[in-house]
Amino acid sequence: MKQSMRGILTAISSVMMFLPWTIFIVRENAWALESPAAEIVIGSYAAYMIFAGVFTFGVYMKGRVQNSLMKICLVVNELYAVAGVMALVMMTVGKVM
Fold it and tell me: Which residues are CB-contacts of 82 (< 8 A; sequence separation ≥ 6)?
């Protein structure tokens, strides 16, 4: 893989690290705190965090983009992915009970 493509993939993974924090800005709106909008917002962010974790893992392993910044992105995005799975499980279990 070319060096420029590795840089682009690293930049994408880096941006994916910071996007989940925008939920705090979204949740300042009154509509985002009411049901069903709250569930949709949380579910969307959880799905995005899972996608970011899978994407970063794929780029790191399959694309062999293994620089220092990518290692940091991998750890952070995998933690986000685990948190996203946990959020979706809590939402699902909450609806069942």
Answer: 53
Encode the chain in three state secondary structure. CCHHHHHHHHHHHHHHHHHHHHHHHHCCCHHHHCCCHHHHHHHHHHHHHHHHHHHHHHHHHCCCCCCHHHHHHHHHHHHHHHHHHHHHHHHHHHHHC
Residue-number span of the structural domain to which 16 is assigned: 3-96
The per-residue pLDDT for range 18-29, each reduced to its tens digit, is: 999 999 999 999
Q: What's the pTM?
A: 0.91
Structural domain total, the chain:
1
Which amino acid makes up residue 64? R
Are 74 and 60 in contact by the 8 Å Cβ rule? The answer is yes
- The reported pLDDT for the residue numbered 97 is 67
